Amino acid sequence: MKNILVPVGSSKNAVSHLQYAVDFAEAFNAKLFIVQVYNVYTKAGTMMNVDKIIQRESLEFLNGLVSKIDKKGVDITVRSLKGNLVDTLELASKAANIDLILVEPRTTSVKDTVYLGKTSGKIIKQTQIPALIVPEGYTFKPATNILMALKSAIIKKEGVLNPLKDVQDKFKAAVNLLLVKTPYHKEHDFDVKDDLKSLVSNITITENATTFQGVLEHFQSHNPDMLCVVRRKRGFFAKKWEKNTILKKDFYSSIPVLVLSGLK
C-alpha cells in the first residue's frame, strides 16, 4: 500500500481524521494525498475569477488543517480539485495510483443521527476505490483482529483482496471469516478458494436474513478491531446502499470498516 487518498470536507473532525491518516500512512511508508473537491455553478454576468478564488480558499483551508497535525515525515501532497465529486476522485485515484481512500463518516453532516453523511456515503457507494471508514475521533492503532463478513466467497476480480492482505501483512492480523447464509444463498457461495483461505485464521458459518444481521450476531464473540466488508449492489448494506446517507439506527461501527471493491 503506497498511495492513500484523503478527501476533506468541513467537519469539526477533520484534523483528527487527518492525524489518523498520517499515522496510518506512516505505518505503511505510504504517500498521502489530501484533497478537497469543489464545484462552481456560475450564471451569466458573474465574476470570471470566482473559480480561482474558491480554489485559493480551498488550498488555504487544507494547508491550515495540515499545519495542525504531526506529519511524522510522511510525504504529503495537498490539492484542491474542481469537478463532480465521484468522477474527480476516480480520476485522481487513477492518476496517483491510489491503493486506498480514507473516509470520514461525516465530512459535512452535523446530524448526530447520521453514520455516513451524503458525501461519505456517495464515495463509498458510487466509487470502486477500496476504502477505510474511520470513526470520528478514532486514534490510530494497528488492527490485529479483523472480522470479514461475506455472503459469497466467490472471487472473480484480480487484486480485490490486496488492501486486506496489506493490512494483515503489516500488522500480523488474524482474519476471521464470517460466511452468512442469506435467503439468496447459491450453491458454491461458500467455496473458499486458496487466495482467500490463505488469509483466514478461522471460518464461521451463520444463517441470517442479511450479512449485516450476521455481523450483529457475531460481533461480540469475535471482538474485532477492524471490520471488512465488500462493496456490491446487493451486498453488506443491502437497501442501505440505495441512499447515500446511512443512519446510525441502520448501521454504526465504533471501529474502522475496510470496504473492498466487488469480488465479482
How are the SSEs placed, and which strands pair?
Layout: E1 3-7, H1 14-28, E2 31-38, H2 50-66, E3 76-82, H3 85-95, E4 100-103, E5 114-116, H4 118-126, E6 131-133, E7 145-150, H5 162-171, E8 174-181, H6 194-197, E9 200-207, H7 211-222, E10 226-230, E11 246-247, E12 257-260
Parallel strand pairs: 1-2, 1-4, 2-3, 4-6, 7-8, 7-10, 8-9, 10-12
Antiparallel strand pairs: 5-11, 6-12
Order of helices and strands: EHEHEHEEHEEHEHEHEEE
Q: Describe the sheet with the most strands.
A: 10 strands, mixed
Spans of at least 5 consecutive residues with low confidence = 237-242
Q: Order of strands in the sheet with the most strands? A: 3-2-1-4-6-12-10-7-8-9
CATH class of the largest domain: Alpha Beta
Distinct helical segment count:
7
Strand percentage lies at 15-25%
> Count of DSSP E strands?
12
Query: Which radius of gyration do the C-alpha atoms yield?
Result: 19 Å
- Anisotropy-based shape: elongated
Explain what the structure shows:
The protein has 264 residues and is of the alpha/beta class. The protein has two domains: 131 residues, HUPs (Rossmann fold, 3-Layer(aba) Sandwich), CATH 3.40.50.620; 111 residues, Rossmann fold (3-Layer(aba) Sandwich), CATH 3.40.50. 30% of the residues lie in helices and 24% in strands. The chain has seven helices and twelve strands. The strands form two sheets. It has a ten-stranded mixed sheet, sandwiched between helices. Strand 2, helix 2 and strand 3 form a beta-alpha-beta unit. The chain is elongated. The two termini are 22 Å apart.
